[in-house]
Structure formats: structure tokens, C-alpha cells
Amino acid sequence: MRWLLPFLMLGSVAHALYFFLDGTSAKCFFEELPKDTLVVGHYTAEEWDDNTNAWAKHDGISIYISVDEMFDNEHRVVSQRGKSSGRFTFTAADAGEHKICFTPSSSSGRANWLSVLQPNGGIKLTLDLAIGSSEIESTDKTKLVDIAQRVRDLNARLLDIRREQIFQRQEREAEFRDQSESTNSRVVRWMFIQIVVLGITCAWQLSHLRSFFIKQKLT
After folding, report:
1. Lowest-confidence range among 94-98, 115-119, 185-189, 209-213?
2. Cα-based torsion angle of the residue sequence 105, 108, 113, 117 in order, rounded to the nearest 10 degrees
3. What is the DSSP string of 108-140?
4. For a surface tag, which of 15, 51, 176, 185 has the fewest beta carbons within 10 Å of its beta carbon?
């Protein structure tokens, strides 16, 4: 069946809708897109849960998403399999009709066909499409804010490292200066002690020699 989404051509806006998928049959939408148009889609696939009497997603659901360029011999630009919820993006390389298809699969074992006997069969797919630049601009702004915050954090860390380096250098310089002054003081004291000892030794030797010469004259 051919589904058209003319209401999505408003541009730069997001639209949400939901529909039901039977079994493993693909459901496709056809969309005329201008060249260089960004399309961002968020989807959530749910299956009826008899225990809660509500639609719910689970790990056994997967969705295969494909996007074909109908004007270019159905050239496929998107081919991805996702979990029960996820996101897909693509940019129209040229203006023309694009076919967006969703194919479900589930491991729950539940009847997947919608019928009078199975009114809650199949997969409920909620789709939120953003066509235009608003989604990417919003995403880019968020990323830029995150990057700016990271840059500020990095700058703060660099300043902290710089201050720590300056502090350590000043501390090391002060420690080295104190150690040098202490070493110089010890050297000066030791030289003074050596000079005193040498002076005492010389005086003793001179006194001893004087006494020796006096004794030699007397004899």
C-alpha cells in the first residue's frame, strides 16, 4: 500500500504519528524531499502485553528501516536494523521521491496479525519525523553547548595544572635556595674551623721550633 505524507512537507518541524504493522510485512511511506533536506526520525515499537493490558516495548522487538531514492532506480540510502526504539537520519542527495519503510520482527510468539479475533495483534510503531534543519540545528546547539562546557572544564584544569606547576617550581626553588644557603654556611664554618686549626698548628710549630733553637744555642 502506498502511504503519502504531504503534511510533513511543512519543513523544519517535527510530526509524530503511530500506526500498526502486521506480521513481518513492511509498511512504507513516500515523501517528496528537496535537495539537501535533512530527515531525522525517532521511533518506538511496542507489542500488546496481556499482563498489563497495555502496549509495551521489550528486547525481543526489532525494526528494520530502509530508505530508497525512487528517482534513482530505488537506490538505497539507509539500511539499518534497530531495537524496539531508536533513531535514524539521512540527507536527500537530490530532490525527488523517497520511500521510507519499516519492517518489524518479534520473538514474543504472539500473533502478529491484526484481525477481529486479534484486535491487539501486530506491532504498534510510534514515529516522530523531523524534516528540515530544526532538528539538526537543535542537535548542533546542544553539541556546541556540551563542547563549550568541555572546553571550559579543560581550560580550568589547565589553569589548575599551571598553578600547581608554578607552586611546585616556587617550592622547589625555595627549597633549593635554602639548601644552597645551608650548604654554603656549612662550607664557610668548616673553612673557618680549618683556618683556626691551621693557625693553632702553625703557632704550636713555631713555638716548638723556637724552644728547639734556644736549646741548641744553650748547648
Report:
1. 115-119
2. -170
3. S------SSS-TT-SEEEEEEEEESSHHHHHHH
4. 51
pLDDT at 24: 76
Phi/psi at 114 (5° precision)? -80, 130
Q: Between the CA of residue 39 and those of 11, 114, 138, 139, 146, what are the distances in Å?
A: 10, 30, 13, 13, 23
Amino acid at 21: L
Alpha-carbon span 44 to 30, nearest angstrom: 20
Report the alpha-carbon distance of residue 177 to residue 74 in Å, rounded: 79
Mean pLDDT for 46-62 is 85
pLDDT digits (tens, 9 = 90+) for 121-145: 678 889 988 887 554 555 566 777 7
Q: What is the pLDDT of residues 109-124, one digit of tens each?
A: 665 555 444 556 678 8
User: What is the CA 201 to chain-centroid distance, rounded?
Assistant: 79
Predicted structure pTM score? 0.53
- Our measurement of the distance from residue 23's CA atom to the centroid of its chain's CA atoms, rounded to an integer in Å, reads 38
Cα radius of gyration rounded to whole Å, the chain? 44
> Which is more confidently placed, 50 or 28?
28
71, 30 contact by CB (below 8 A): no
